[in-house]
Amino acid sequence: MPELILHEYARSGNCYKIRLTAAHVGAVLERREYDIMKGETRTPAFLDGVSANGRIPVLQAGGRFLPESNAACFYLASGTPLIPDDDFDRADMLRWMFWEQYNHEPNIATLRFWHVWIGEAGFSDLQRANEPAKRAAGLAALQLMEEHLAAHDWFAAGAFTLADIALYAYTHVCEDAGFRLADYPNVQAWLARVAARPGHVTIEV
Ligand SMILES: N[C@@H](CCC(=O)N[C@@H](CS)C(=O)NCC(=O)O)C(=O)O
Fold first, then answer.
1. If you take atom 15 of ligand 1, which residue's CA is the nearest one?
2. Among 22, 37, 85, 87, which residue's CB has the most CB atoms within a 10 Å radius?
3. pLDDT for 105
């Protein structure tokens, strides 16, 4: 594997996913921190040299740049048991990772950002208007996870895969966003299983 550099903001769950994957596969990452609150990913140097999308995380592998957290996890875990060999199981793992990016992260991670970094008193009119819909969608996502985990230990392939890493990142800190993990006992038990895996590392807050 080429030299790996993670362009990140350490408190972001999307960046944490990549560090967690790296820890599980034994990949060594050089880390470069950007303060997203100061717009450090929106500078011409970042937009031209790292990612035109203006967001972290970006995984740099040698001279190539890979934005999108789940793509970076997929790259790091290629050829390891974190990605199932079976075609259907691998697609099912990806299904949960796409679901995470559409139904989970935009609601739970965004509410975490709004509540922890901005605070309700500082919400814009748009944030105040959108909060209830994001909360309802976040609750629906947690409920769907709860129902899946009533019958399964893991999200895909009957094994610990990248789907668990992707979903763990923002689920385990969802109380920052005002969700109650006590309402989801199957999710709580799964969080404990993920945290008990050899090689687990914690998020930096
Ligand atoms: N879908 C992307 C989301 C990336 C994203 O939204 N990054 C946020 C932090 S978690 C960011 O860079 N925000 C700063 C900004 O938009 O200026 C991923 O999974 O990597």
1. 55
2. 22
3. 98
Which residues have a Cβ under 8 Å from the Cβ of 44 and sit 6 or more positions away? none
Atom of ligand 1 nearest to the CA of 72: 20
> Which of the following CATH numbers is that of domain 87-195: 1.20.1050.10, 3.10.450.50, 3.40.50.261, 2.40.110.20?
1.20.1050.10
CATH homologous superfamily for the domain 4-76: Glutaredoxin (3.40.30.10)
* pLDDT tops 90 at residue 205: no
Q: What is the pLDDT of residues 52-66, one digit of tens each?
A: 999 999 999 999 999
Residue 37 has what pLDDT?
A: 95
Structure tokens at 163: 């789907």
Q: Where are the alpha helices (DSSP H) in the chain?
A: 13-25, 44-49, 69-76, 87-99, 110-112, 125-151, 162-171, 185-195
